[in-house]
Amino acid sequence: MWHQLIDGWDDYQTAIGRPRTTRDLRRYQISYLAKSLNIQPGRVTETDLIGWFAIHDWAPETRRSYRSAVQAFFAWAVKHKHIPNDPAVEIPQIKVPPASPRPAAEIVYREALLRADRRTTLMLRLAAEAGLRRAEVAQVHTRDLRGEPSQRQLLVHGKGGKQRLIPITDELAAMIGAGPAGHTVGGASTGWLFPSDKGCGHINPPTVGEVCSKALGPGTTMHQLRHRFASKAYRGTRNLRAVQELLGHANVAVTERYTAVDDDERRAAMMSVVA
Question: Looking at the 3D structure of the chain, how many domains does it have?
Answer without folding.
Answer: 2
